[in-house]
Design brief:
about 25% strand, signal, alpha+beta, 1 helix
């Protein structure tokens, strides 16, 4: 039972760090004549996107 509590605490810590990092990024969808794709970008940074 003690091992289960440690695993739960570790899981919550990992989830909180992951959620914090995910909040700084977003997915941008791009659609062209050739198809569509998504690109993961940072929110507070300029990113060049290929227009091919």
């Amino acid at each position: 039972m003690h091992g289960l509590k440690q695993l739960t605490v570790l899981s919550l810590m990992l989830l909180s760090v992951t959620a914090k990092e995910a909040a700084k990024r977003t997915m941008v969808g791009i659609e062209t004549e050739k198809g569509s794709y998504g690109k993961d970008v940072e929110l507070e940074d300029c990113v060049e996107l290929d227009e091919e």
